[in-house]
Amino acid sequence: MNKDQVKGVGEQIKGKINEAVGKATNDPAKELKGHLQQGAGKVQKAYGDAKEEAKDEAKRNKP
User: Using alpha carbons only, how large is the chain's radius of gyration in Å?
Assistant: First the structure.
């Protein structure tokens, strides 16, 4: 696991928390912030996953 994967998961968790707080307090702005954080976290994790896959592929194809 690389730092982008870890940060991405962290952002997803923060987003879920903000979304829940927004729903509980009837704060649409906080809820939207949570949705956006989750989306950003998913993108960052996907980037980290791709980096990890490329690294693994390079190791497999090393002569």
Answer: 16
Q: End-to-end distance of the chain based on CA atoms, in angstroms?
A: 24
Q: Which residues touch 63 (CB under 8 Å, ≥6 apart)?
A: none
CB 18 within 8 A of CB 41: no
Of the pLDDT bands very low, low, confident and very high (cuts 50, 70, 90), residue 12 is very high
Domain borders along the chain are 3-57
pLDDT tens track for 30-59? 999 999 999 999 999 999 999 999 999 999
pTM recorded for the entire structure = 0.86
